[in-house]
Amino acid sequence: MNDRVFGVFTLLLTFFYIFSAYIVEESFISDHIGPKMYPYIVSFFLVTSSLFLIFKPDIKPIWPSFGKIIEILMTALILIMYAVFLPVIGFVFSTFFASSFISWRLGAKVSSAFIAGAIISITIFILFRKILGLSLATGPFGF
Amino acid sequence: METLDFLIDGFKVALTLENFTLALIGCILGTVFGALPGLGPANGVAILIPLSFSLGLSAAASMILLASVYYGAMYGGRISSILLNIPGDEPAMMTCLDGYPMTTQGRAGEALTLTGIASFFGAMFATIGLVLLAPQLVKVALLFGPVEYFALFVMAFATLGGVASKNQSKTVLASCLGLGIATIGVDHQTGVPRMSYEIIELYDGIDFLVVIVGLFAVSEVFVFIENTNLNKIGEEKKIIIGNIIPKLKTVLKIVPAMFRGTFLGFLSGILPGAGASLGSFVAYTFEKKVSNKDDTFGKGDERGVAAPEAGNNAAAGGALVPMLALGVPGSGTTAVLLAMLMTLDVTPGPLLFKQNPDVVWGLIAALFIGNIVLLILNIPLVKYFSKILLIPSKYLMPIVAMVSFVGIYGISGSSFDLIIMVMFGLLGWLLRKLDIPLVPVIMGVILGEHMESNLRRAMTIHDGDWFMLISSNVSIVIWSITFIGFVLPFFFRKKIKSTLVSLQK
């Protein structure tokens, strides 16, 4: 993918955005230009700059290998799962898994990644929950 | 001398035990964030905002913490530039040019001390400049109405790409992405939901902290994963600092360079859309022009490290002027600082000086104190900080990621926000690959609401007459600067590009 593809993508996104602005139901009390005008102005500049990207693209960036892209998406998926499971299984366990995964993907051996994950998760829990009193997610075990 | 009175009150705020401790912590964390490649000032501040918010710090206390981080990062950036030839953050890029050659000559310690002095010098003068200039600017800004403010916001975006940007249309695209995201949620003027498609979570809009931490911190994790194999090469780093006390003659030699660097840096800091990176760039280029008589630059000339370091620290202080006085930030990090003020319901801009003098002057006093702390941290203790560079990223990045999650979750306690944050992390990675700058997106998200409400207020006052946007003299001046600032880079970019290329060789 390069600038052109991204330009087309933002162009489509802008059309969706314009449509979303168009269907905004105005309330009976309104200021002079209403809630639609400003999104339209932003859209104008979005369309213009997207067209520039399509017709005058820069040189293509160097993309990582297919495997790397999968790896990045996997990491994103793990982080999303982290977000979902955080309130379910509690902070310490989910943070342990997520940080071990990241550490492993950044080149640590599996064993040291698990140790790092455990240290990170417990340290953050003690520092932020016990010492600083931040509200972290509590699972069924209370941590 | 009412400024002096305010300043004394500010010192009273900054010297309470809590605030002084926060300044100290901020300075240490800032130096660390700056020193670590991949974590810059904007990143560091972004991660800490949600934390300071969930810890329930007051506005003055959080500003002191975060501004210390901001100043600290400007100091810390030089450490890895000098020792490893990898800029710790973007503003420290120019310091590599003469800093690393000094290291190869075994003068690393000397380079670190000289740059430490230069940083202190630049930051000190910039903070004095802030004290003198900001209240004057406030007097002008009090005359501004919605028309002028709207023009000012447009100016901030139009000049943002400025000389540093490679492709103006990408800056515009990035700004509008941010402005568009800011319109999601219930419209503040009329109360109707926009772009939220009956999704309850979107009615409040997307919290800009989520966007900031996602784009800056989470995307950094993806960048590191992408480059894992490349990082292995740099793993056998050796750090030898050696003697840190320079000769008095060398110190005197860099004094003129520091003065020039500070002046140019401060100036580029105040200008909208410039910031610290431009400050150090201008300072280095100018210094080279003035002092490079024996062709010593790029080969370890002391003035070549002193000028850019004085420059970027002075620019950091200068960038606070428009942020505090107008509420219109000129750089990424000041935009993030502004975001924090807004999260705490403190209205930035001229009214800040009237309504919350403790925040403004406490902050300024804390910057003076922080500077002295930073000088101590960064010269005698620099070898301990340089050890931090030895922490491999495979253990560091998980910490960064998890602390980001903790901060955001601490505010909202919602998984939805975290998922959005990961999405923005991916978006940030994609934008970086495409060379689309992230700072305009952030600024758009932060300033969008104010920009729109000023436009609409202006239209309501003037009965929808669009020509009233260019009615007052002040607004005409601002629009002209906007136009020039947007168009000028088209003509100058080629020249700057070639200078950059020749410098890197």
Q: Would you write up a description of this structure?
A:
- The complex is a heterodimer of chains A (143) and B (505).
- Chain A is 72% helix and 0% strand.
- In chain A, 33% of the residues are buried.
- Chain A is built from 5 helices and no strands.
- With 143 residues, chain A is an all-alpha fold.
- Chain A has 2 domains: 3-55; 66-131, no CATH class.
- Chain A has helices at 3-22, 34-55, 66-89, 91-105, 110-131.
- Chain B is mainly α.
- Chain B has one domain.
- In chain B, 75% of the residues lie in helices and 1% in strands.
- Chain B contains 22 helices and 2 strands.
- The longest helix of chain B is centred in the first third of the chain and has 34 residues, at 108-141.
- Chain B is globular and about 65 Å long.
- The N and C termini of chain B lie far apart (51 Å).
- The model of chain B has no long low-confidence stretch (mean pLDDT 86).
- At the A-B interface, helix 1, helix 2, helix 3, helix 4 and helix 5 of A face helix 8, strand 2, helix 10, helix 19 and helix 20 of B.
- In terms of quaternary structure, the protein is heterodimer
| Helical content of chain B (DSSP H or I, runs of 4+) | over 70%
Question: Which H/E pattern describes the elements of chain A?
Answer: HHHHH
Q: Which H/E pattern describes the elements of chain B?
A: HHHHHHHHEEHHHHHHHHHHHHHH
- Approximately how much beta-strand content do the residues of chain B carry? under 5%
The Cα radius of gyration of chain A reads: 23 Å
Low-confidence stretches of chain B: none
Shape of chain A: flat
Domain count of chain B: the total is 1
Strand content of chain A: under 5%
Main sheet of chain B, how many strands, which sense, barrel?
A: 2 strands, antiparallel
Low-confidence parts of chain A? none
Mean pLDDT of chain B: 86
Count of discrete alpha- or pi-helical segments spanning 4 or more residues of chain A: 5
Q: Averaging pLDDT over every residue of chain A, what do you get?
A: 89
Structural class of chain A: mainly alpha
Q: How large, in whole angstroms, is the Cα Rg of chain B? A: 22 Å
The residue fraction in helices of chain A comes out at over 70%
**N-to-C span of chain A:** 43 Å
Number of helices of chain B: 22
